[in-house]
Amino acid sequence: MATSDGEKSLIVSFGEMLIDFVPTVSGVSLSEAPGFIKAPGGAPANVAIAVARLGGRAAFVGKLGDDEFGHMLAGILKQNGVSAEGINFDTGARTALAFVTLRSDGEREFMFYRNPSADMLLRPDELNLDLIRSAKVFHYGSISLIVEPCRSAHLKAMEVAKEAGALLSYDPNLRLPLWPSKEEAKKQILSIWDKAEVIKVSDEELMFLTGSDNVDDETALSLWHDNLKLLLVTLGEKGCNYYTKSFRGSVDPFHVDAVDTTGAGDSYVGALLCNIVDDRSVLEDEARLREVLRFANACGAITTTKKGAIPALPTVSEVETLLNAN
Asked: Which residue numbers delimit the Carbohydrate kinase PfkB domain (predicted)?
């Protein structure tokens, strides 16, 4: 095990960070909500904080508005032990906002304010290439593919990370309201599909990308490509399925009282990346991989037991408590 931060391998997360405005009460529409609480979010930023919370070394690369919210978000990354060396501030555009409805079952609906927001305006020439080159794992989503110049920055960052030997990790994190159309979303999400070595999709994303009504092995394996080392399909409260070149299987969930599913997938991804960044051979050893995915399932489950993503991301001791109780 690494003994200090300086020796730990770096996980770099690329993309958007924003503020979710979450209703003070659950189970109401946005128009019915009596008030909202600020909740920092954005899937790639959540993953970076999830990694740091579990004792890993993480950095975030993206662009925020040069406004109070943008500086607040950069501060939250730093407070949580995430390097902010890869952050740029845009003086002309605001930090992205999202109003989120929490339905009574803990699922979410979104209304976004991004026209354009700072994250969309990150240019390739603004990337901290030294930071990206030092990543052992480079993780990203698909929201950064929606518009230029951010799309070009995303492609450049991926290319630089790959050339430097990083493992590429992709969680599409489908947010249909942000895309011009379903067809464009599917096309762009799949446009970088064959570059990633680790891909995590939810059951809903699997059905969206394949056009199938099933989440069975055959459907999942239709998304397989030769560069892939691990394909994960998360099934919410039903656990997850895993696929590699040599084996496949499923890992059972942990049953908890879910309050808010925000950030559960990001917590899961952070846990996975923490456990493979220093030893990729885990991806070829089914027994060890199953242990890692059990740990990741526990992280995701714990994250659903509190409101908001970042406050709910667990520490190792919280995860061990849940693992030992089951």
From this structure: 9-315
